[in-house]
Q: What sequence folds into this?
């Protein structure tokens, strides 16, 4: 399947395709982009060990010469230290503006390689080949790139669009269950606030998805990319509707902050955040108890957490105040208006603190 991310209203050459399939002949899709000779593959240790030599052979047989920059696994690679290392390698290899950088890995690699592409020589060509479910359904679509700073996540970055995104579900075969459901949390999010049919599909096909049935994975990746691409087409820079993608993220980010981005994964934190947001929505008469129960049940059954960790309401509110969506004493919250629909509402922190007191 091919999805078009149409950003032609913003800039003539910013639109791109997302390909979703299994066993994709990657070389065939890279050639027409006009890759002359060289590409730089930025990847992480695990993905390199698993797939480095096979992707190298595929590219070589298409007449493309790859060189590899291999970074450590995990969030620590998304730092100024490794960004600087990527620049060093590009300069050492006399990488030119017409050459291509391929991000081959999860969201960490996509974000870092994307930002390196946006900034090196004021912008070089960039391709995303995501290898985790989270990067398939979320980080590879939408053009947000960047690195972390010791003071906070994603503080340095740029909007920069790839030339193509190639999503091959076969890479998910080697992904462990915790990483799979980490990405699945974002799929639940899309269904919960944007697409009731997708939500129903997740409820009815959960066992198949968790056991990595290829057709089911392709279906949920396609739906997720379509939904995200549609939102990004409407609001690339998150001035309005793109904030719907933050459903579950206000409390989710606070949980991640309180755990110093260790122990808990992003998908786990937003799962707790989604259940919290649905309970808030019920309190504000925006959704039924049945909606809360359906969401909580799907999250639980997929192996994701729902219980709010035992920090104090005060700590949660203080952490939430770091959010970009905060104005004075209130925050723009994404609420659920029954499955498949959402509503934005400004909520003041006194109300949120009181509500948290009843749940913790
Ligand atoms: N740009 C965006 O819009 C956006 C959106 C969401 C998240 N993100 C970012 O994405 C990052 C998280 O991404 P992630 O969850 O993919 O984490 P990740 O890139 O760290 O990958 C998770 C782990 O899986 C391993 N791995 C990757 N592919 C594998 C495979 N096919 N088989 C086996 N192991 C594999 C990696 O080595 C790593 O240890 C965060 O930094 C987050 O900020 C960005
Ligand atoms: Zn998220």
A:
């Amino acid at each position: 399947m091919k999805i078009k991310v149409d950003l032609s209203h913003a800039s003539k050459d910013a639109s791109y395709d997302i390909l979703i399939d299994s066993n994709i002949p990657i070389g065939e899709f890279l050639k027409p982009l006009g890759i002359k000779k060289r590409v730089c593959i930025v990847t992480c240790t695990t993905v390199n060990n698993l797939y480095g030599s096979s992707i190298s052979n595929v590219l070589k047989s298409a007449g493309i010469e790859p060189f590899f920059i291999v970074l450590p696994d995990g969030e620590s690679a998304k730092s100024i230290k490794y960004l600087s290392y990527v620049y060093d390698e590009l300069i050492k290899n006399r990488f030119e503006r017409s050459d291509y950088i391929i991000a081959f890995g999860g969201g960490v690699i996509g974000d870092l390689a994307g930002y390196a592409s946006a900034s090196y020589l004021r912008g070089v060509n960039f391709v995303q080949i995501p290898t985790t479910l989270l990067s398939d359904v979320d980080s590879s679509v939408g053009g947000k790139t960047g690195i972390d700073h010791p003071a906070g996540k994603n503080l340095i970055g740029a909007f920069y669009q790839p030339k193509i995104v190639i999503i091959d579900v076969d890479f998910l075969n080697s992904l462990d269950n915790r990483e799979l459901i980490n990405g699945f949390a974002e799929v639940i999010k899309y269904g919960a606030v944007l697409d009731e049919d997708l939500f129903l599909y997740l409820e009815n096909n959960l066992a198949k998805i968790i056991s990595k049935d290829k057709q089911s994975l392709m279906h949920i990746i396609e739906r997720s990319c379509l939904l995200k691409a549609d939102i990004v087409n409407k609001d690339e820079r998150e001035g309005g509707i793109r904030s719907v993608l933050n459903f579950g993220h206000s409390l989710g980010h606070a949980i991640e902050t309180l755990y110093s981005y260790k122990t808990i994964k992003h998908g786990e934190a937003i799962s707790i955040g989604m259940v919290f947001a649905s309970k808030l929505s019920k309190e504000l008469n925006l959704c039924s108890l049945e909606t809360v129960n359906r969401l909580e049940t799907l999250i639980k059954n997929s192996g994701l957490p729902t219980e709010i960790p035992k920090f104090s309401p005060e700590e949660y509110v203080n952490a939430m105040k770091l959010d970009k969506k905060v104005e004075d004493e209130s925050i723009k919250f994404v609420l659920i208006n029954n499955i498949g629909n959402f509503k934005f509402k400004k909520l003041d922190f006194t109300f949120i603190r009181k509500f948290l007191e009843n749940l913790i």
About this structure: Residues 186, 249, 266, 270 surround zinc ion (ligand 2) (CB under 6 Å). The radius of gyration is 20 Å.
